Amino acid sequence: MRYVLITLLALLVDADGQCAEWQSIAGGSEFSFEATFEGEPLGGSFKKFDVRFDFEPAHPADSHLVVTVRLGAADMGDPDMNDVLFGEAWFDVDHFESADFDSRTVEAQSSDNFVANGTLTLKDVKQDVTVPFAWSRDGDRARMRGEFTLKRTDFDVGTGEWAAGDTIGITTRLVFDVLLEAAE
Asked: Which residues pair with 26 in a beta bridge?
């Protein structure tokens, strides 16, 4: 009887043939950021991040997305710039290990475009954030792509002499392309 109940529950959760639990794959995933320095683009990437997503495109309201980005794994392609980025005025990696996004509200915009509404915690500052993304699936693999912007000063990133935004812009563009696999 227990086996029958477990099978029925599995069929209900996976009624549309979609796997409900996904996790990011390190190889093939990218998460980059772009700010401006004196009006010119200045970018980098996060080399370590984890994505866990309970998601069924047919039932987005039942989703839960958790993203953890390791701040100390940011890379701007220059060791001196990285040292500044890791410092107290910016990511303060001595006190803050990660930025964390938690969304329990996903809305469909179309059959393959969605919006995740959640809370981003960065340097102990919590802000509501909306993250649009496109979703595609191929068997037990899926891809999640999107971009959004943040005001860095909303999270106390770039404080002190950097807060004004005249040298380094206030708005930061974040772009992600995450390869996921069905969680075991």
From this structure: none
